[in-house]
Amino acid sequence: MDDPPPYPPDPPSPNPSSIPTLLHPGPLHQHGCIALSLAAHLPPQSATIQVLDIAPHALALADLNTRTLAPRLQNPVTFIQADIMLDPITNAIPRKACDLVVSNPPYVTNEEYAGLEPDVKEWEDQRALVAGEEGMAFHWRIARVVARTLLREGGGNGIGVPRLVMEIGGRHQMEGVTRVLKEEGFKRVEVWEDMAEGRDV
């Protein structure tokens, strides 16, 4: 298999007349780091950002981080407790309301989890790591929910960026995740090399 291309060039700045909605679904237990980075680095008042997580303690810490970083945030962030695997997601997010979904979902297999180092297993919530026998249960669920329920009709709202960005666990998951994305109607699927020499879809 050919090596994937490096990260694509930075997308153009959002159209000032459009305010896209970005969604970061969980369970992630990352205390808002991706959402807050987007809120800080996107142009001022160019997006509204909503974050889903299953864990109340993670949301509480994310809220604390939001208040701590408030002077640096240029876009509003809202945190919502929900389980994307179980909840009717439209109870938390209106249908067809999102322009971009970004997720770093669990991608460790059951077998891989058994062999993880103690400095991971003893400090990370298992729900934030394990995603079934193939490590792709969340990718499959997110792809289907995003394509069928969450993405706004019309594509991208003119912001010139992908509609769905997810991290995967490595090359062994590229084919399975790519297949599901295409089955759900994503016509252009790319794999980018991340800065830690991993693989993101």
From TrEMBL:
The alphabetized list of GO BP terms reads: methylation
Q: Where is this region: Disordered?
A: 1-21
UniProt key word Methyltransferase: yes
Q: Where is the composition biased (Pro residues)?
A: 1-17
Name a GO CC annotation attached to this entry: mitochondrion
Q: Does the keyword Transferase apply?
A: yes
**Keywords in alphabetical order:** Methyltransferase, Transferase
Query: GO MF terms on file?
Result: methyltransferase activity; nucleic acid binding
Tell me what this protein is called: S-adenosyl-L-methionine-dependent methyltransferase
